[in-house]
From TrEMBL:
Its main location: secreted. InterPro entries: CRR_secretory_protein, GNK2, GNK2_sf. Residues 26-128, 134-240 form the Gnk2-homologous domain. Residues 1-24 form the signal peptide. The keyword Glycoprotein applies. Belongs to the cysteine-rich repeat secretory protein family. This is Gnk2-homologous domain-containing protein. Gene3D superfamilies: Gnk2 domain, C-X8-C-X2-C motif.
Length: 245
């Protein structure tokens, strides 16, 4: 599903959505590939089930896992990533839901990706691990606008770039922060994250590209996200990061 693999699964999707802080059970979005299919009970089907079982075990303790199962053209490659601030229990629940739902929504497709607020899950018959996915992406944004558009846009982009510089140097490729705005009333909250099959520099490149989409997704918006198969950012004027006790 990365660039050059199969048939492009997505172009660009625009959503008008009032973002909520709660972790929902409904997926944010999913993309299926209809280019290659497998039959129930086939070697790929069995490898995919094994892959999902492995990810369900590997991911919750650390928040990330990747694996390849099988051989030749029947290999199933996949990864799952949980948001860096969710608990192990919520991570496990999200990955479990994602593995069941992606097979339900993308029945017999050899490549698919599904996003939840708490996690993402991706698999393919083509090895995409270690490559930036610049193809599968979508936007979410708050329906409300700010008043001082030019100033807010500039501050937010600079804020997200600073978070990126922090995240790509960390082992988890994840960072959050908050800052006071000039009006002394509002605070800006942000989060950036990459899948950990990427190197630090790949993570930075992925997030820099995502932030470059800001004028298209989030111009004047009080909150927004660009979400891809390899990285994502989110900002809001209210706290949405989960504080671990």
């Amino acid at each position: 599903m990365s660039s050059g693999n199969l048939v492009p699964l997505s172009m660009l999707f625009f959503f008008t959505l009032l973002l909520k802080s709660a972790i929902g059970v409904e997926p944010l979005y999913h993309i299926c590939s209809s280019s290659f299919n497998y039959s129930s009970g086939s070697p790929f089907d069995k490898n995919l089930n094994t892959l999902f079982n492995q990810l369900s075990t590997k991911v919750p303790p650390t928040g990330f896992g990747q694996s390849s199962v099988g051989g030749s053209q029947e290999t199933a490659h996949g990864l799952a990533l949980c948001r860096g601030d969710v608990s192990t229990a919520d991570c496990k629940s999200c990955v479990s839901t994602a593995t069941a739902e992606i097979k339900n929504r993308c029945t017999n497709d050899k490549a698919a990706v599904i996003w939840y607020d708490a996690c993402l899950l991706r698999y393919s018959n083509v090895n995409f691990l270690g490559s930036i996915d610049s193809e599968n992406k979508f936007y979410l944004y708050n329906t409300q606008n700010v008043s001082d558009i030019e100033s807010f846009n500039g501050i937010t982009r600079e804020f997200l770039s600073r978070l990126t510089d922090k995240a790509y140097r960390t082992q988890k490729l994840f960072a959050t922060d908050e800052m006071n705005l000039d009006n002394k009333i509002d605070k800006l909250y942000g989060l950036v994250q990459c899948t950990r099959d990427l190197s630090g520099l790949q993570c930075k490149r992925c997030l820099d590209n995502a932030i470059s989409e800001f004028p298209n997704c989030c111009d004047s918006r009080r909150g927004g996200r660009v979400i891809t198969g390899s990285c994502n950012f989110r900002y809001e004027l209210y706290p949405f990061v989960i504080t671990k006790k």
